[in-house]
Write a structure and sequence with these properties.
Length: 267
């Protein structure tokens, strides 16, 4: 399941040719639900160990077009985990203070500490894709960024962070339904911006821009995974699977207790 989603270094992800409704072999929804619950129990134990050990961190980078389900995914996968060991950062268009620095400044400050799982809801990849598509800087500026990013992510990995990068691949039709729902449902309307429609009008161009940046930045040390995103239970299960896999490879251990505690009786 994981290898199917993984983008091999140096290869194109082929986003447009992937099926956004793929069930990744999970079968029926109710079976996948049971599987997801099992993964979440594993995650809870592994996260507790990661936190208590305080040696390594995990960074989950989430990218995807509007309504690809980034927020819902975070809710589903991380509910039940210890909030003290999680750190979520959502990246919007940079403020004037942020623009007064290099583009990785705010990103670096939002990284998880040792022992934490960090979740980036959008990320430094906006500094390539959004900047390119919205023409916020000249081509020579965004063109050199994938090179910086590969080196910066290598440094983070060397220093103890496991990086998982996920592109949530929503189809154009499913995006239409979800955006329409945002307009029609008063509880969801706050999420909708008219400018979402301008971006949607360039859906294929945005995918092409992601295609380029993912091909340039999927590395052995920080691989990209293209996750089918039309069905919420598929993407939640896929991401939970990625996290469990990463944490099992880290294999965090409970710290050694102080000596002489065994058998102590509290008076
Ligand atoms: P949302 O995730 O719907 O709250 O929207 C956040 C918006 O901020 C999206 O339109 C992003 O493209 C935009 N954004 C995030 N980071 C950047 C960035 N570094 N440069 C330009 N736009 C950005
Ligand atoms: Mg939005």
């Amino acid at each position: 399941m994981l290898s199917k989603m993984r983008v091999a270094p140096g290869s194109k992800p082929g986003i447009a040719d992937r099926d956004a409704r793929d069930d990744l072999g999970l079968g029926e929804k109710h079976k996948a639900h049971a599987h997801l619950e099992t993964l979440k129990v594993k995650l809870e134990v592994l996260q507790q160990r990661l936190y208590s050990e305080g040696r390594c961190s995990v960074l989950l980078v989430l990218q995807g077009l509007d309504a690809s389900g980034k927020d819902g995914l975070i809710r589903t996968v991380f509910e039940g985990l210890n909030p003290q060991g999680c750190k979520v950062a959502s990246f919007k268009a940079p403020t004037s203070t942020e623009l007064g620095h290099d583009y990785l400044w705010r990103v670096h400050a939002a990284l998880p500490s040792r022992g934490e799982i960090g979740i980036f809801n959008r990320s430094h990849y906006e500094d390539v894709v959004a900047v390119r598509m919205l023409e916020l800087a000249p081509e020579k500026v965004w063109k050199r960024r994938p090179g910086h990013i590969v080196a910066w992510e290598q440094m983070l990995v060397d220093e103890g962070t496991t990086i998982i990068k996920v592109f949530l691949n929503v189809s154009k039709e499913e995006q239409r339904l979800r955006l329409q729902e945002r307009i029609d449902d008063l509880e969801k309307r706050w999420k909708f911006r008219r400018s979402d429609l301008d971006v949607r009008a360039r859906f294929d161009d945005f995918i092409a821009a992601y295609e380029d940046v993912i091909a340039e930045t999927s590395t052995d040390h920080a691989p990209w995974y293209v996750v089918p995103a039309d069905r919420n239970w598929v993407k939640a299960t896929a991401v939970a699977e990625l996290l469990v896999d990463a944490l099992e490879r880290i294999d965090p251990q409970l710290p050694e207790p102080e000596e002489g505690i065994e058998g102590l009786v509290v008076a």
